Amino acid sequence: MEPAAWGVVPGHRDLPVPPVTAALLRAQSTRFAGLDPLLPPAVEPPTGEPIRAALPDGEPVAGVLVRTLLEPGTPQTLWSAMDVSELHPILGDTDGEALDALLRATRPLLDDAADSSLVVTWPSRDLRAARALLAHGLVPLSVLAVRTAPPGPVITAPGVVIRRAGTADLPALTESAMAELTYSSLVGGAFLRPGAPAIKRAALSMHLLQGDPIWIAERDGVTIGHAEGWHTDSIPGSWAETRVRHGRWGYVNCLSVREEARGTGVGRALMGVVHAELLDRSIGSFLYYNPPNPLSPTFWSRQGYRPLWTVWETRPACALR
Prior knowledge:
By secondary structure, this protein is an alpha+beta fold. Helices cover 27% and strands 28% of the residues. It has 7 helices and 11 strands. It has helices spanning 19-35, 96-106, 127-135, 170-185, 196-210, 266-278, 296-302; strands at 49-54, 60-69, 83-90, 116-123, 139-147, 160-164, 214-219, 222-234, 247-257, 285-289, 306-314. Helix 2 (96-106) links the parallel strand 3 (83-90) and strand 4 (116-123). Helix 2 (96-106) packs parallel to helix 3 (127-135) and helix 4 packs across helix 5 (196-210). The radius of gyration is 20 Å and the shape is globular. The two termini are 27 Å apart.
């Protein structure tokens, strides 16, 4: 799944931050640091509809609800509802009780569109918040996981050749990408939209033309999997700044292994090659995976990744309790 910056308005951080919100952001950054040392400081949310709520003792909490309507045929539509409402909580140093209050204040603002979702991205280690999110009907459909260990030895799989892909490999890469998309759609992390193969082919072609590395795995000349990734810089104002600490990171966009080749070491072999390149001169790497996928959590844990952010969703958005 490629990163999405739903509703981000260029230059929005140039706008003045209300004093209450600024204080809450500072307190939230301190709380995040206590939850997980790899979490970046909280930043001002994108422009959207402000939401205010208060705890029983009168302590304020706030949030911003950003609604985005996606264009048909764009890559984002393959891992997102067409009508996305993303809630950006600003809770200060409070916990799940504050998130509960904010979600209650959000419910009347949601549309009843069928192909819609409410999305909340929150630190994975905040268990009190998880309790509130579950109580309101949201489910953890994806996780942003990080790895900070250096690359290990490259592992080989019997009879498997791994090489960098080129434009001549587009048909095979598209088929491999569609195999991953089809599997992910079974566990709620992806959407099989009309025209999905063309969307995948166009995205792969763009990455190849940009020089982003794509690796292909073959056995007896037949493609059995591939991986995609690139470097990204977390700097002030970037989308990555909201997810990982400042610095250069490797991003793993996709790992796909054909069903008949799973369990034979192909995925481990691919990731060994990916890490050898992406972790060079990087402070770590990160990726998204789907917790409901019975294979993903175990596989990625063995690859040295652990959850940093959990992406909670309810579909349609109006299903929020």
